Amino acid sequence: MKPIELDEIDRHILVELQRDGRITNVELARRVGISAPPCLRRVRRLEELGIIEGFYADIVPSRLGWSITFYVLIGLVSQKSTVLEAFENEVGSWPETRECHMIRGGEDFLLRLIARDADHQNQLTRNLIDNQYVARVQTFQTIRTSCDRSGVPLTE
After folding, report:
1. Does residue 58 contact residue 150 with C-beta atoms inside 8 Å?
2. Closest residue by Cα to residue 139 from 156, 116, 118
């Protein structure tokens, strides 16, 4: 997919929205140097182009009892599209699944999951091991996260 060309104002809008998704349209317009109506039109256009997918609160999982974040490398029994899709649909339906990536270079998928405690993590791991489409499971529990950014680098 070819990247969408943006002008300086659109990039500045994205920079400000990545910094603060709760910013009002009036304040956003002030920061980027245009009036509110064209600013709102630009934001809506960025949404229509699929550059902005939505706005959300960045919640700290541990503050709500989700104390474990772990990654899982998954090797499937087959790379047939029906197997890939069935696996993606199943793990994608789990509320603990935060990310599911089909990957290249050894295994088939990389998952990021959250769990309330070690027993919960073990149950999720067991669910993966027992999955009919899974041949290999390798888990990695995070110890500390020193960098966790959303969005993309944008120049102003």
Report:
1. yes
2. 118
Helices (H) and strands (E) in the chain, counts: 5, 4
* Max Cα–Cα distance, the chain, nearest Å: 57
Closest CA to 128 of 80, 82, 81, 77: 77
Q: Which CATH number fits domain 62-141: 3.30.1360.120, 1.10.1660.10, 3.30.230.10, 3.30.70.920?
A: 3.30.70.920
Query: Model-level pTM?
Result: 0.84
State whether CATH 1.20.120.450 applies to domain 8-48. Answer: no
78-94 confidence digits (pLDDT tens): 999 999 999 999 999 99
